[in-house]
Amino acid sequence: METLKNFSIMFLSLFLLISSTLLSLTSGEVQRHQFVIQATPVKRLCNTHNRITVNGMFPGPTLEVRNGDSLEVKVVNKARYNVTIHWYFNYCAFNNTLYSGSYTYRFTIQGQEGTLWWHAHSSWLRATVYGALIIRPRLGESYPFPKPNLETPIVLGQWWDANPIDVVREATRTGAAPNVSDAYTINAQPGDLYKCSSKDTTIIPIDAGETNLLRVINAALNQPLFFAVANHKLTVVGVDATYIKPFTTSVLMLGAGQTTDVLIKADQRPVRYYMAARAYQSAQNVPFDNTTTTAILEYKSSKKGNAPKPIMPSLPAYNDTNTVTAFSRSFRSPRKVQVPTEINESLFFTIGLGLNNCPPNFRRSRCQGPNGTRLAASMNNVSFMLPRSISLLQAHQQGIPGVFTTDFPGTPPVKFDYTGNVSRTLFQPITGTKLYKLKFGSRVQVVLQGTSIIAPENHPIHLHGYDFYIIADGFGNFNPKRDTSKFNLVDPPLRNTVAVPANGWAVIRFVADNPGVWLMHCHLDVHITWGLAMAFLVENGFGELQSLPAPPSDLPLC
Length: 558
Description:
Oligomer: single chain
Shape: globular
CATH architecture of the largest domain: Sandwich
Largest sheet: 6 strands, mixed
Helix content: under 10%
Number of domains: 2
Number of strands: 32
């Protein structure tokens, strides 16, 4: 069975549900929902396709909870594909692939407020299986900023005028890059600049003087995106369900998987203004979707009928890394935070692309990468392979040998000029299912070093099961003698996804206090397909609260 068909099977190890005994510890409410995963006719760009959706909705339902609530979601799979749903909570128990039938996910939300999202983590199903997940403060508590008049999820997506599963399967067959998307979307609509789309363009109404909290999510499969609203400033107040020190900007850049909460005040002439998003493309000479999606911020008092065309915002150039750098370095926690300082696991991971030589038994049609190769990706020269028949966590808990090894290298096997002119002999990674073992409570620092192999680009690196502090980033090769002076150990931002600069590096820190097997991967799904991932195996600590619970009795088996 082809690897992509089995992609979803392995994610038991990566998503943990809170145990039922913890549900009684919260003083919040229990929120119950049902997700039915099914094929639904969806018309975009003049054509109707059967797309996998939740409850026939695209995007899927917005889940709204409060800090301290419990969430139960019964997922019923009626689609022809296996599916796993990934929830962005920092939780601690199990999840598995649904082939058919149903399964109820149970969580308690503790200590997170702001905007997250949920999505399919199975092949490229998340192209249409996704939705917003909003966490408000506990009852009786308030936002750390003036309460807005309105709150609106703004979910940025990517649309193919073809079945996304077929797109990635064809790329896997040929070894080449997949076809680029045909449109971007805002709340699943492409907007006025695309064919057959104007009548369904997303409209956000607002009264003059009102403040709207826009919860912006980049759910695009393979593209970092710029976002702006014509003539309006955006005050950034949160990212990845954590509050930050507010700052004002005219443009956002969201790596795939990232969320950004912004306040927008209706303080302009009462007309219509475009919200717009388009690609930030850091990789040079690589094809990408250069179209622009739009929605409309519409003042309620603006003229109806023959209203003038909405005003378009000025968006940065596709390759405007200077704007991205200035934006990403504006993030600070609201106050001094407890950053891990006495580090006992200091790791250095190279991240980037590579090439696999064409296997002798492959036809030329299966090796359509550069110079007759197959495209690959890796961390520390290991291209991650998901097991085919059993999950990582299941193998770990049951002591099943031969599924994975724990020899993922903590530093690059070969040191080289990572962002310079790299020798062709270093282009081919090895493949393996290698994990890195961490003792419970380890204070971990990871340097994420981009490489210039094939095409340097901005990589959104996401870690399951944890938030982490981003203490520094930069360009070129990380130099500990020079660059440690740049570390922010006072008020760095706390995130779950870090955008590692093209031909550069970022440094993150976290405490390994959530036992289990946790995937770290690039959130550009094409790079996961090629192997740009690894996993941490965090050992149990002492006692029940520091140990991995037993699997739920109703957990679907691989």
